[in-house]
Amino acid sequence: MSDPRYWLAFNLAQGVGPVKTRALIAYFGDLQSAWQAGTDELTRAGLDRRAVDNIAQARATLDLDQHLARLERAETRLLTWDDPDYPERLAQIADPPPALYCRGEIRSEDSFAVAIVGTRLPTAYGKEAGRALATELARNRITIISGLARGIDLIAHQAALDAGGRTIAVLGSGVDVIYPPEARPLSEQIVQRGAIVSDYPLGTGPDGRNFPPRNRIISGMSLGTVVIEAGLDSGALITAAFALDQGREVFAVPGSIYSKTSLGANRLIQQGAKLVTRAEDILEELHLEHAAQEAASREVLPEDETERALYTALSQEPAHVDDLGRSLQQPVSAITATLTLMELKGSARHVGGMYYVRVS
Predict the structure, then answer these.
(1) Rounded to an integer, what distance in angstroms lies between the CA atom of residue 171 and that of residue 178?
(2) DSSP assignment, residue 247?
(3) Are 160 and 189 in contact (CB under 8 A)?
(4) What CA–CA distance (Å, rounded) separates 238 from 61?
(5) How far apart are alpha carbons 265 and 234 in whole angstroms?
(6) Packing angle between helix 291-300 and helix 332-345, nearest 10 degrees?
(7) Cα distance between residue 146 and residue 348, in whole Å
(8) Are 165 and 192 in contact (CB under 8 A)?
(9) Mean pLDDT across the stretch 301-305?
(10) Strand pairing category for 355-358 and 348-352
(11) What is the DSSP letter of 261?
(12) What is the pLDDT of residue 292?
């Protein structure tokens, strides 16, 4: 894994997002070399003058060791594209954030995640719907992702914790700047049983411009997004739009035709979002009925060398156990035994005739 200081450096430099970061890595090979490059080289790498000037200014003013020490004091980890703990689902979207600030822990079981978003001013019906869905999903070992905003977001986070589940909050500020203020006690609970994440540097305030872009992370970390009570101008609809762009599922809880807070959710249903009345609707659509068993299996069945080798050898193209045995120079009995365990863990699937494929 490369030196995190340089990922931090380019995150702190204004105007250097995923596209420019990828161009720098492609040209220089790594971000350390890019950070140390001259302005002419940065231009040849494809950066515009404004980005080059911003990098030069950042290079002249930033003390990277000091910023790393600040992260340690804030008990915050920087997850980057080349970090094995970078969120699996988020890495699959177009142009994911190169660096993600994280308080708490993101685990492998968080790949089974559903986002729940909605209005900041829910009705009694919306509150109950959000609480019920988050509770049942969490009981089925689904991680609940939301934005720690007032209303549906806070209800979803709290319900997941109350159900003994995991939850992840994606902020439109630095992870050390909790907004709204009343969410601070809940945020500490989330850190203990999930994570608080942001692609904004420490100290960034909750500027209104920050919230729409962060919604791409909420949807990007999730298999699907559930919208509960959203008006026509709700930020929840932005999250739903990101989910569609990312090829993720969109769900909506129907509301009263007389309620302004339900106009957006009802329109999503008209446009093809799956209507949701219970958690099972989501689990069935996402094929997560057995997520709890798979998550439990991942915990009790640790990986070994054979399993790691098999996972590498498998792909979306079906492979026969005999071929796998020859490739890994292992007896077929050992291959089939390991594949059985991998099926329980959800990392491999039998497609018939002793052929297997990898499950990402």
Answers:
(1) 8
(2) T
(3) no
(4) 36
(5) 10
(6) 130
(7) 29
(8) no
(9) 66
(10) antiparallel
(11) G
(12) 54
Cα 144 to chain center, whole Å?
A: 11
Q: What angle do CA 166, 196, 62 make, to 5 degrees?
A: 155
Residue 103 has, within 13 A of its CA and on its CB side, a CA count of: 25
pLDDT(290) > 80: no
pLDDT tens-digit profile of 66-113?
A: 999 999 999 999 999 999 899 999 999 999 999 999 999 999 899 999
Contact 21, 31 (CB under 8 A): yes
pLDDT of residue 30: 95
For 256, the token pair is 């009263």
Strand arrangement, sheet containing 348-352: 319-320, 355-358, 348-352
Continuous segment of H or E residues that includes residue 320: strand 319-320
Whole-number Å distance between alpha carbons of 247 and 251 = 13
User: Residue 349 has what pLDDT?
Assistant: 87
**Residue 285: which of 295, 296, 297, 277 has the closest Cα?**
277
Q: Contact 118/266 with Cβ under 8 angstroms?
A: no
Residue 215, pLDDT > 50, answer yes
